[in-house]
Design a protein that fits this description.
Blueprint lengths: L1 H23 L1 E7 L6 E7 L23 H4 L45 E4 L5 E4 L2 E2 L2 E2 L3 E5 L4 E5 L11 E4 L5 E4 L11 E5 L4 E5 L10 E4 L5 E4 L2 E2 L2 E2 L3 E5 L4 E5 L10 E4 L5 E4 L11 E6 L4 E7 L8 E4 L5 E4 L12 E4 L2
Antiparallel strand pairs: 1-2, 3-4, 4-7, 5-6, 7-8, 9-10, 10-11, 11-12, 13-14, 14-17, 15-16, 17-18, 19-20, 20-21, 21-22, 23-24, 24-25
Length: 342
């Protein structure tokens, strides 16, 4: 009888311990219902077969996507992080002054053949500023902007004074083609090359036609397409190509419509999109054309939703072209924009 009582007592103690172990393994965690994103609460029970007392959670068995971090690491063990003061956060954008040009180069008028310098980003990161109109008239001087130093420094002067719609186009070899414009007394067909290595301008072949307010576009094969422009009151439909290998221009095209103050944007496949500009008289154009370097011909490319001249066109990474702003009447300007999909 005594032995039987002892055995029953031991059995009771074992049963009570096992019960306590089960209750120690009952935890409550917050889970997120994947269909609604709403939080719900569920009781999850686990018990090791041989364990007696508090459960030991195997980290490998925890699903990081649904486990409650507070259930794995108590809040008292998570180090606190002080918030970053707002005054110590530097702005990621904005405008700030930089060095001034060495020479006053003014902008006159609101047309594509206005007096303004040409600015070109060079292969080394500096920016070439050439020509324009200053207090002494049309300029031949040029200067370089160094973005590291934030300063402008003089460089060689052009062979010819140029303003009123000349262009400066970066070539594949790092040189810059300067062409056309107005020297204050006549429209120019002459062109020259700037070499960043020497800081010197030198003559190259002349365009087949004097022109200002035209567009110059570097092609995929290294040549430069010259389109349209104006000579006095005449609008030009002619186009030509500059070949850096021969240093000469030759005719191509022409465009279907005479225009100046238009855009000419290199797009996928090596073609060039021509949009808008001023046409005959004071007409502002909505029409567009495509130039194919392979055939040397222009073809119709539909029309913009709004006539535009003096606007901007930018090729996007996805192949489309963004067209913004410009003038759509003799005295009206637009803030609208549109997209061209090749």
């Amino acid at each position: 009888m005594v032995l039987r009582a002892v055995l029953f007592g031991l059995a009771g103690l074992i049963f009570a311990g096992a019960t306590a172990g089960c209750s120690g393994n009952l935890t409550t965690e917050s889970t997120v219902a994947p269909s609604t994103g709403a939080a719900s609460t569920a009781a999850v029970s686990s018990m090791a077969p041989t364990a007696v007392g508090p459960a030991v959670v195997d980290p490998a068995s925890v699903n990081p996507a649904s486990a409650n971090p507070a259930a794995v690491a108590p809040a008292s063990l998570i180090p606190s992080v002080a918030p970053i003061p707002a005054t110590s956060i530097k702005p990621g954008s904005g405008f700030s002054p930089t060095g001034s040009m060495t020479v006053l180069r003014e902008f006159q008028g609101d047309r594509a053949d206005t007096a303004q310098p040409a600015a070109t980003l060079l292969s080394g990161g500096s920016v070439l500023i050439a020509g324009g109109a200053g207090s002494s008239g049309i300029l031949a001087s040029a200067e370089l902007y160094d973005p590291t130093a934030g300063a402008f420094v003089p460089t060689g002067s052009m062979e010819t004074r140029r303003s009123y719609g000349h262009t400066a186009t970066l070539l594949s070899d790092g040189r810059v083609l300067i062409a056309g414009g107005d020297d204050g007394s006549a429209y120019l067909a002459s062109a020259e090359l700037y070499d960043p290595k020497t800081g010197v301008f030198s003559p190259t072949g002349s365009m087949t036609t004097a022109r200002a307010g035209y567009a110059a576009t570097a092609l995929s094969d290294g040549r430069v397409l010259i389109t349209g422009g104006t000579v006095a009151s005449a609008r030009l439909a002619s186009a030509e190509l500059y070949d850096p290998k021969t240093g000469s221009f030759r005719p191509t095209g022409p465009m279907a419509t005479a225009r100046y103050g238009h855009t000419a944007t290199l797009i996928a496949g090596g073609r060039v999109l021509i949009t808008g500009g001023w046409g005959a008289g004071t007409a502002i154009l909505a029409s567009a054309e495509l130039y194919d370097p392979g055939s040397g011909t222009f073809s119709a490319a539909g029309s913009m939703t709004t006539p535009r001249a003096g606007h901007q066109a930018t090729a996007l990474f996805d192949g489309r072209v963004l067209l913004v702003g410009g003038q759509n009447s003799a005295s009206g300007f637009v803030r609208s924009a549109e997209l061209y999909r090749p």
